C-alpha cells in the first residue's frame, strides 16, 4: 500500500496508526521527503516521533530541506514500526512525504510444524564430496 501525506504551517503533524487488535505485523517505509509548490526558501525540518524500548516518546529529525540547496531527500525506504508521527518541527512547508505500508500476516502453528519437518529432510541428505583432481 502506498503512503503519502503533506505537512504545512496549518497541518504540522500526521500520525500513522494501525488497529491495535490486528494480529499482523506492519512495516512502514519512508521513501522520499520533498518540498512542494509554494515552499519558501527556509529550513524545513521533519521529525519522526515514535517510542523507544522503554515506551518513552522520542523525536528524531530525518530531513532538513531548503528550496535553494536541498528540496528533496531520498530515505531509501527508511523502515518504521507504527504508530509513528511525522512532524514539521521547523519551517512552514509544504513538505510531502511518501512511502509504503506492508502488512505481513503471521503464519499459524501448522505452518511452523511443516518448517520443522523440512529442516529434518535437509539433514538426511548425503554430504557433498570434494571434486577429484
* Shape category: elongated
The succession of helices and strands, N to C, reads: EEEEEEEEH
The average pLDDT is 82
Rg over CA atoms, rounded to whole Å, is 22 Å
The CATH class is: Mainly Beta
Determine the CATH topology. Jelly Rolls
Distance between the termini: 54 Å
Oligomer: single chain
- Could you name the ranges where pLDDT drops below 50 across 5 or more consecutive residues? 108-115
Number of helix segments? 1
Strand content: over 45%
The strand order across the widest sheet is 1-8-3-6
Q: What's the story with the biggest beta sheet?
A: 4 strands, antiparallel
- Going by CATH, the homologous superfamily would be Nucleoplasmin core domain
Number of strands: 8
CATH architecture assignment: Sandwich
Structural class: mainly beta
Plain-language structure description:
The protein has 133 residues and is mainly beta. It has a single domain, classed as Jelly Rolls. Helices cover 11% and strands 48% of the residues. The protein has a four-stranded antiparallel beta sheet, with no helix packed on it. Residues 108-115 have low confidence and may be disordered.
